[in-house]
Design brief:
alpha/beta; 7-stranded parallel sheet; Rossmann fold; single chain; globular
């Protein structure tokens, strides 16, 4: 059973599990923020006929109990996912992500035949992650200061001496100190799952996904997914606002690699217990992403490096993936250039060019009004 099964990762995972002979049940609320106004049958396509589908909110005990019936494995993907939005819709993010996971685990503890629970965690649990200071070695920086960023100083500083620090790959033993409400809820989710499954005596795992991208990701949600946001702006010929100085970076991991990692954990036995990073270990800057997409689409849009920033955003983060490689032999296969080309080709097939949708600008206005975007 996959909660959030109609979502980006959920649909791809369901198709893979069906191909491997699993009986798959999907549970999803079909949130308009993610899916727009499309009907469930249209969202799921071929999965509608090949999976049992339960529509419901993850906080709805009755609906969730129905979905759990007869399942041996649960993959918990359902969550609210907007970092910026989480900073002012705090109750909703905590309620859906934390309480929803608690409801799921209450029911899981009573379920018969349940053998494994996986939860989608996030790179956000690390906050800024691991850095190196020339004087103090490995450090875990605090959130960047507003007064620094107001004067366009976006560098991450050593928490001991305040000298500029250099980002390093973040491994699973790194300090967990999220800098957003979203990150706090993801850490809460994974801790709930790992503690509860240990008490149940079944394997539990948390997959700390980096920035997942690829064909099929939501083009409707203005709060997440810079590839989707940039694509819509570039196809419409609209200016692209590059936050900070454009040199902030992320670890972009392709959907096929995420599905492969998840499948290995599902079938990994006792080797697949605990928290695992899922990423490529490669940094790509936001400006590099925007420039590559502009070239692929042949867009005339201007790329404006604005110096804007959002409270709660991190500067850099990329994964050390050796733990998952050593435990289950997982190595990401799709490079960013290859994956970006596949993503852009899919976007072009969606017929979204020239869209006048203003939801992204509206989302920025919400952030400005609440003092989150500067």
């Amino acid at each position: 059973m996959i909660t959030g099964g109609a979502g980006f990762i959920g649909r791809h995972l369901a198709r893979r599990m069906l191909a491997e002979g699993f009986d798959v049940k999907l549970f999803d609320s079909f949130s308009p923020q993610i899916h727009g106004t499309a009907e469930p049958r249209g969202i799921l396509g071929d999965l509608w006929a090949n999976c049992e589908v339960v529509r419901g909110d993850v906080r709805d005990r009755e609906a969730l109990a129905k979905a759990l019936a007869g399942r041996t494995v649960v993959v918990h993907l359902a969550a609210e996912t907007g970092t910026g939005q989480s900073m002012y819709e705090i109750d909703r993010y905590v309620d859906v992500n934390s309480r929803g996971t608690a409801v799921l685990l209450d029911l899981a503890a009573q379920a018969k035949g349940l053998e494994r629970v996986l939860v989608a965690s996030s790179r956000a649990v690390y906050g800024e992650g691991r850095y190196r200071c020339p004087e103090h070695g490995t450090v875990y920086p605090l959130p960047r200061l507003k007064e620094d960023m107001d004067r366009a100083d976006f560098a991450v500083k050593c928490p001991v001496c305040a000298a500029p620090a250099t980002v390093a790959a973040t491994d699973e033993a790194s300090l967990l100190h999220p800098t957003s409400i979203y990150g706090i809820t993801k850490l809460n989710q994974e801790q709930l799952v790992l503690v509860a499954t240990a008490a149940m005596g079944i394997p539990g795992a948390a997959l700390r996904f980096q920035n997942v991208y690829g064909p099929g990701q939501s083009l409707n949600n203005p709060y997440t997914g810079i590839l989707s946001i940039f694509s819509r702006l570039l196809q419409a010929g609209r200016e692209v606002n590059i936050f900070e100085d454009g040199e902030e970076s992320r670890d972009f991991v392709y959907i096929d690699d995420v599905v492969e990692a998840t499948c290995r954990v599902i079938q990994g036995g006792e080797r697949a217990i605990g928290a695992f990073n899922v990423g490529t270990g490669i940094q790509t800057t936001v400006l590099e992403v925007a420039t590559a997409l502009k070239r692929i689409y042949g867009s005339a849009s201007a790329l404006r490096i604005s110096g804007n920033y959002r409270l709660g955003d991190i500067r850099h983060n990329f994964a050390d993936g050796r733990l998952l490689e050593e435990a289950l032999g997982f190595i990401p296969r799709v490079g960013f250039a290859e994956g970006l080309a596949a993503f852009a080709d899919w976007v072009l097939g969606q017929g979204a060019g020239g869209s006048e949708d203003n939801s992204y600008e509206q989302s920025l206005q919400e952030l400005r009004a609440r003092g989150i975007m500067k």
